Amino acid sequence: MANILYPAPLKVGSKIAICSLSAGLKEKFHARLDIVINGLKNRGYDVVEGEFLRQNKPREQLNAKAHAQQLMGFLLDEEIDAIMPPMGGELAMEILPLLDFNAIKQAKPKWLVGFSDVSTIACALTAKCQWATLHSANLMQLHPDEKNPYSLQIFETLTYEAGSKFEQGPSSLYQKNKPSYAQNPNELLSPSEPTKWQCLNYTDKRTIEMSGRLFGGCLDTVGLLLDSPFLALHEFKKDSAPEGLILYLENSELTPTTVARFLLSLKLAGIFDDINGLVLGRSEITQSHYDAFDYRHALDVALGGCLFPVIFDADIGHVQPNLNLVNGATCTLIADINEGIVNSASLNIQLS
Fold first, then answer.
1. Collapsed DSSP state (helix, strand, coil) of residue 26
2. How far apart are CA 262 and CA 255, in angstroms?
3. 276 and 248 part of one domain
């Protein structure tokens, strides 16, 4: 029996905490930060800033304990409705053993919103506390003038009641280049490259379907923790997702060879025994030092023999735009495949 807890829908006057998880923002990003925070305020939200949000001190002056205490304060504060870190950070896993998950379980569930290293904490909240969390674009990408539908979907998703449903599909275009918020604080998403989702292990013409509870995040961090006490994916499936899981992962900094190692380690640890399907985001790094071993080769080596469907180059992660994926929600993904290319796809997500 599923026991996922969905935070209350956000409304005008809801309080959002903006805090860093492992490192504050450098001064060159403060202009962009002011713009996106004002955007939240213009939507009617009450915004509170974390103590370390605008501090980028050396590690010896701003340590994991300080960040853990700050986050715990927001997680336990009954007036806070959502937490939106501006960016992911680097070492959010440092604070995992410093969080009191028993106390968090007793608190009012709150939305944690974002991707990259935000997913490290989000997955732990879902796995250990059964809180639904939102994997999506980070706050810094949510300029008030942004019109990209995936960005706007975030604010829609945060208003949904438990039991609500929504549908998404592949983007038409993605943005290849990284944004430069320090140089242009008002930069908007400017996708230009045709999106092409692909299927790794079903190449004939067919329709594939996978269903289960969504769970996932950044392979660089979450991939190291799926078999740890903080995520314990097998236990989460047994307790909260007996119907199985749709695991989604995306790569930020791993070379193709390292991607293969990470995925093979998950396979050897039995993580894939608990899933009904795997969805991988577009990778920022597609070539290794050895021309013969690229990202596609890495996936073939690690996942080529899997019986469950494997979709890759999906709209997840560091190559924008980002789907809105609710950890803990039920999802059915249906995709029409022809010669390994996804011609059309729909993700039907229900907060149940």
1. coil
2. 10
3. yes
Is residue 170 a contact partner of residue 342, using CB atoms and an 8 Å limit? yes
Task: Assess if residue 111 is contained within a domain.
Answer: yes
pTM for the whole structure: 0.95
Task: Tell how strand 15-18 and strand 82-83 pair up.
Answer: parallel
Question: Could you tell me which of 325, 228, 346, 243 has the C-alpha nearest to residue 281?
Answer: 325
Q: Would you say 37 and 48 are in contact if contact means Cβ atoms under 8 Å apart? A: no
Cβ neighbourhood burial of 47 (10 Å; 0-12, 13-18, 19+): middle
Do 143 and 258 share a domain, yes or no? no
Amino acid in position 197 = W
Closest CA to 22 of 60, 64, 61: 64
CATH of the domain at 154: 3.40.50.10740
Average pLDDT per block of 10 residues along the chain, 352 residues long:
88 97 90 98 97 72 82 97 92 94 97 97 98 98 97 97 97 94 96 96 92 97 94 93 96 93 95 96 79 85 93 96 98 96 97 96
